[in-house]
Structures are given as C-alpha cells and as structure tokens.
Design brief:
Blueprint (H helix, E strand, L loop, with lengths): L1 H16 L6 H6 L13 H17 L11 E10 L2 E9 L10 E6 L5 E5 L4
C-alpha cells in the first residue's frame, strides 16, 4: 500500500512539473532583460525592458490582453534590504478589475527580471 502512494505521488509531481504552464511565465520573460550581469541600465532602458515583459505576459495570456500596449506611470530605483532594484509601474484604465489596473515590474539594476505583481510590494 505505501508503494502505491509513493507511485501516485511521483506521478502527480511529474504531471505538475510537466504541465504547459509550469515555468512558462519565466520562459516568456527571461529573455526580455540581459542574460549576463552587466553595467547598470538607465531609466529609458529599464522602461523598455519593462514594456517588453508586459507585452510578453499579455501575449502569453498571463495577464489580460488589454495590457499589450502598456502605459508607464513611473520608473524608479527603490532600495530594499537585499539591494536596489528598478520598479517600473504601469497603469491600464481598460482593466475592469480595479485591483489589477496597476502592474509593477521589478528588475535588477542591470535589467534582469526579478518579479511582477499588482501591488508594488
């Protein structure tokens, strides 16, 4: 009986890890920023990378299609306990869900993707 549960668990893990959406978001956006560490990007380059990430997320259907033409609200460097990051804020008035009208892209100083969310935290 324990062998049955072990096999069932392994099968479930295999399905989860091989599902089409597992890691797909990372695949879509990982090429938007630089692959290797490099010199810091300026604000214009950070915005360009952020826009490309938003477009790719919209095309990949991870966020609403109305985000395909993102409007930048701000692009600032923020200091966190682990270091300084670029935070690019976007606004989409076409998004019906008010909690999803603001989208934040977090980048390293050299333009690598860190995270995306609707809260800015």
């Amino acid at each position: 009986m324990p062998l049955f549960f072990l096999i069932l668990t392994l099968f479930a893990c295999n399905l989860a890890l091989n599902s089409p959406s597992y890691g797909a978001e990372q695949q879509i956006i990982k090429t938007a920023g630089k692959k290797k560490s490099g010199p810091p990007v300026n604000q214009a380059r950070a915005v360009a990378i952020g826009k490309e990430i938003v477009r790719r997320l919209a095309k990949g259907k991870f966020i609403a299609a109305s985000w395909e033409i993102p409007r930048v609200e701000s692009a600032k460097k923020r200091e966190y306990p682990h270091g300084i990051e670029w935070v690019i804020a976007f606004f989409n008035k076409r998004e019906k869900d008010k909690s999803k009208q603001n989208l934040y892209i977090f980048l390293t100083l050299d333009g690598k993707y860190i995270a995306v969310n609707y809260t800015g935290h």
